[in-house]
Design goal:
CATH superfamily: Glycerol uptake facilitator protein
Strand content: under 5%
Number of helices: 11
Structural class: mainly alpha
Distance between the termini: 29 Å
Helix content: over 70%
Radius of gyration: 18 Å
Oligomer: single chain
CATH topology: Glycerol uptake facilitator protein
Number of strands: 0
Shape: globular
Number of domains: 1
CATH architecture: Up-down Bundle
């Protein structure tokens, strides 16, 4: 395992690599990550329905594990790129470019899984739970959604930070599981997961002919917007900036900012 100080240096290196990706690759790897998180959401739904909330919380970390091991691009984890930007190893516009294309890719991937899972009939046994989850998330107040987003990405970025420090696949799996299980169990809000949960509930209500207050505009404004802002505050602000300050590392030769 790397020390925290060494892990900050590793985060800078990873940030440089991510910033150097082409827009097309950011988008493609973002689609993969969104789909993997959404697939974990499908599994977690059945865990909740058949065995309770703790079971669902124990299933969901598989999503981030798959993202990390496959090298896919996840918006919430990429909030840690702010360390490289503060260090001057990447340009701020490169940071924002990555966040934008990865966020878009995540949404596309999660949306594709939501559509497929609903209209394939896979989610039919859990239809009520799928709709209720989307309604609960959409009906949060702006402040509730924002603060739950902050708490969520503190844990997600802790998981990613610790995964940077692990040198083996087994070590990465071990350190990722706990923080992700904890955020799901506590009911915190993850923007990419919600890119699946919200649309899945909307599509399920349409498919089932059930009248609800769910619609895409309400989901985007009432949930995805404040949760995304909260994720940035928690991941980039508290963990990214916080660990940069807590564990300063010796300057590396400054790479050409991309």
């Amino acid at each position: 395992m790397l020390t925290p100080k060494e892990t900050v240096a590793k985060a800078v290196e990873v940030g440089q690599t991510k910033a150097s990706l082409s827009a097309g690759k950011m988008l493609l790897l973002g689609i993969f990550a969104g789909a993997l998180i959404a697939l974990a959401g499908v599994g977690a739904t059945f865990g909740n329905v058949y065995a309770g909330k703790l079971a669902g919380a124990c299933v969901f970390p598989i999503g981030l594990i798959m993202v990390v091991i496959t090298g896919s691009e996840l918006f919430t984890g990429n909030n840690l790129m702010i360390i490289a930007a503060i260090k001057g190893q990447i340009k701020w516009k490169s940071l924002l470019k990555n966040w934008w294309f990865v966020f878009l890719g995540n949404f596309i991937g999660a949306l594709l899984v939501a559509i497929t899972a609903v209209y394939s009939g896979v989610l039919d046994p859990a239809a009520e739970a799928v709709i209720n989850t989307a309604e609960t998330k959409t009906n949060l107040s702006f402040l509730e959604a924002l603060l739950r987003g902050v708490l969520c990405n503190v844990l997600v970025c802790l998981a990613i930070f610790m995964a940077f420090s692990a040198k083996t696949v087994g070590g990465k799996i071990l350190v990722i599981f706990g923080p992700i299980m904890l955020f799901v169990l506590c009911g915190f809000e993850h923007s990419v997961a919600n890119m699946y949960y919200g649309p899945a509930g909307i599509f399920m209500a349409i498919k089932s002919g059930i009248s609800t207050s769910l619609n895409m505009d309400a989901f985007l404004i009432n949930n995805l917007l404040p949760v995304t802002l909260g994720n940035i505050i928690g991941g980039a602000g508290l963990i990214g900036c916080g660990f940069f300050l807590a564990y300063p590392h010796q300057d590396q030769p400054k790479a050409k900012a991309k």
